[in-house]
């Protein structure tokens, strides 16, 4: 108990909030929800368009749907010698990609020591470690040579990056000519009033969202085009992500809320009330 309290208060001290702490100390191995059958956590909001009913375990199906649409858009090929998952979480998308697409090698980048260890254990246990691994690395300073990567995928991670603009620059650097970026990302929108500012401030602190990444969908689109990548597809999918996720969140048994760090959960209320959108992008290096 005292250990959890210490971690919580450390988290809210100036300069101590990092993306790694969000996932290591606050969410731990439970993530947003733990699949009781597979014991694999879900850590993104999911894509709910093809899910008819919102039930407690629907989040896991929604997560796999998100993996599916991002993976299909990446246009994987058996000739892809190296794919990168930027901000790969528990390596669940890596597992999905290897099992559902012909990929020679996929490397996940993560800054959370706990998730790196957990993800590599998952890949090893699944017999997939010969094709996939998770390493400690930043999506804004990728440890890869220029023009060495065939595909970059990223799901609900870029809002953490310092900054998205730097991430796009790195993607452009590491991709081979003709290489594809397929990503889905949470958009924390510019607040319109004092109450919205409070929610965004709370969310930015508890989820570690740099202030440079807070802007509306239209500004995000402009940033994507400014990157120099050829934009093949860009759309908002907020109605298929944010709205049903909020419904799922409030319909769960009360007991599940105790799986989170409670102080973090209370102070992170902005996640439920700030203006949010969700974007999907497919781009190609010319």
The proportion of strand residues reads 15-25%
Q: Distance N terminus to C terminus?
A: 53 Å
Oligomer: single chain
Helices, by number, come to 11
Tell me which CATH architecture applies here.
3-Layer(aba) Sandwich
Helix % is 40-55%
- Arithmetic mean pLDDT: 88
- Number of extended strands: 9
Shape: globular
SSE pattern: HHEEHEHEHEEHEHHEHHHE
Q: Identify low-pLDDT runs.
A: none
With strands numbered from the N-terminus, the spatial order across the biggest sheet is 5-4-3-6-7-9-8
SS content category: alpha/beta
- As for the number of domains, it is 1
For the largest beta-sheet, the strand count, sense and barrel status come to: 7 strands, mixed
CATH superfamily, please?
Vaccinia Virus protein VP39
CATH topology: Rossmann fold
CATH class: Alpha Beta
- Rounded Rg: 18 Å
Can you describe this structure?
With 286 residues, this protein is α/β, with parallel strands linked by helices. It has a single domain, classed as 3-Layer(aba) Sandwich (Rossmann fold). The chain has helices at 2-11, 19-27, 58-74, 92-100, 113-125, 164-174, 194-207, 217-226, 238-251, 262-267, 270-273; strands at 33-34, 41-42, 83-86, 106-110, 132-136, 149-155, 175-188, 230-236, 276-284. The strands form 2 sheets. Strands 5-4-3-6-7-9-8 form a 7-stranded mixed beta sheet, with helices on both faces. A two-stranded antiparallel sheet has the order 1-2. The chain is globular. The mean pLDDT is 88.
């Amino acid at each position: 108990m005292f250990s959890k309290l210490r971690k919580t208060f450390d988290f809210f001290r100036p300069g101590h909030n990092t993306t790694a702490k969000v996932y290591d100390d606050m969410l731990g191995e439970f993530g947003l929800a733990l699949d009781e059958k597979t014991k694999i956590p879900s850590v993104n909001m999911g894509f709910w368009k093809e899910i008819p009913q919102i039930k407690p375990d629907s989040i896991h199906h929604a997560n796999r749907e998100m993996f599916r649409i991002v993976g299909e858009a990446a246009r994987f090929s058996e000739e892809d010698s190296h794919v990168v998952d930027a901000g790969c979480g528990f390596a669940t998308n890596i597992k999905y990609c290897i099992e559902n697409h012909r990929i020679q090698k996929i490397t996940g980048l993560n800054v959370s020591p706990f998730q790196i260890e957990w993800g590599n254990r998952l890949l090893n246990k699944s017999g997939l470690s010969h094709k996939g691994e998770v390493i400690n690395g930043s999506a804004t300073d990728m440890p890869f040579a220029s023009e060495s990567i065939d595909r970059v995928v990223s799901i609900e991670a870029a809002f953490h990056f310092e900054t998205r603009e730097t991430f796009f620059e790195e993607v452009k650097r590491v991709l081979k000519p003709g290489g594809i970026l397929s990503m889905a990302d949470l958009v924390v929108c510019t607040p319109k009033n004092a109450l919205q500012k409070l929610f965004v401030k709370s969310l930015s602190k508890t989820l570690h969202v740099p202030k440079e990444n807070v802007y509306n969908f239209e500004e995000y689109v402009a940033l994507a085009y400014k990157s120099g990548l050829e934009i093949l597809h860009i759309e908002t999918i907020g109605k298929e992500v944010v709205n049903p996720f909020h419904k799922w969140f409030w319909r769960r048994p009360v007991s599940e809320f105790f799986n989170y760090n409670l102080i973090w959960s209370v102070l992170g209320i902005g996640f439920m009330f700030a203006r949010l959108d969700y974007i999907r992008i497919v781009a190609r290096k010319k």
